[in-house]
Amino acid sequence: MFVSLILGINAHSQIEQVRYLDSTEFASKLDSMRETCSYNKTLLPQFETEILSALSYYPELDGTKIIFKEAKIKASLNARPTVGSLLFRRRSKRKYVIRIKPDTGDSVATLEKVRFNGAVGVLGHELNHVVDYSNRSFFGILGRLFNYTNKKGKREYEGEIDRMTVEKGLGWQLYDWEDYVLNKSDAKVKYKAYKKAVYYSPEEIITVMEELQEQN
Predict the structure, then answer these.
(1) Between β-strands 95-100 and 77-81, what pairing exists: parallel, antiparallel or unpaired?
(2) Could you tell me if residue 74 is inside a domain?
């Protein structure tokens, strides 16, 4: 079973877990992805291919207003609805911001340093936050914020989002991101410990892929 996952072969599953996404292939489709995936999106030019590649897995977000921007944040990336749209707009008209930390040399893993496969994986994770928010009422989103008031709530919430990412077919991409952060990046020990406590480990991601394969 593990070997078939490595090869990206899953004849019985509706969602194929492809081991490596070819950045050259996606770059060659950039014009078509701009037409189909960039509506209502504000992109960062330096990550355009990675962002559009991740968005191609989320057709349900085609009309959703999402702004991608660099910001000096403590995490590698995060996603949230804008306060104004959360308070004053209908659910279908909300705006979302995905903030991406620039590489400032402060020992936090950043999008700039991970390879294409891992970049698409973590962007997919953040897009699943947008999917989750867009399916929730104002009070439902407040409930998500409440999850972040304790370690158990954080773990359950982010684990749910990680699982959604795997279910989208981005399991190996998320695996590469987590493997990079924990085993290959220059991130601080404290940051890595936080990641281990809150998000799925690479091994847990493989377990979810195996479970999904067995179900299909």
Answers:
(1) antiparallel
(2) yes
Q: Please give the tally of structural domains in the chain.
A: 1
Helix (H, G, I), strand (E, B) or coil at 152: helix
CB–CB of 89/132 below 8 Å? Answer: no
Q: Is residue 4 part of a domain?
A: no
54 within 8 A of 111, measured Cβ to Cβ: no
Per residue, the 3-state secondary structure of 44-100, as one string, reads CHHHHHHHHHHHCCCHHHCCCEEEEEECCCCCCEEEEECHHHHHHCCHHHCEEEEEE
Whether residue 8 has pLDDT greater than 50: no
Domain extent, residue 139, equals: 21-215
Residue 9 lies in a domain: no
77 strand-pairing partners = 100
Torsion angles phi and psi, residue 65, rounded to 5: -75, 115
Contact at 8 Å (CB) between 60 and 110? no
Say if CB 77 and CB 122 are below 8 A apart. Answer: yes
**Among 98-102, 145-149, 155-159, 181-185, the least confident range:** 145-149
